[in-house]
Amino acid sequence: MRGATTERQTSCTVAVELNRYGAMTLRSERGRTYQVVDSERPTITEELAELGVDSQVSVTLRQAHGRGNTWCVTDIGSDAVKRQAIRPLNQ
What we know:
Elements: E1 7-16, E2 24-28, E3 33-39, H1 42-49, E4 56-63, E5 70-76
Parallel strand pairs: 3-5
Antiparallel strand pairs: 1-2, 1-4, 2-3, 4-5
């Protein structure tokens, strides 16, 4: 039986933007890769969708239920939008 799932807070860089299925890839400052597949609230998903590749974001994560190394964002830093990477207008 698996123990209780704990949350972890980490600062990350967006490696792959949020896609139409609600998944994205984040890379922590320590080099860990997080495959995000869910968020706790729709407002978190909306904030994540605004972030482009190379944007910096502070998130709180918990391991998602199911197989594999997937994560759910339970909270997002309030300054996330301020630290976005600039997206080219043509993309």
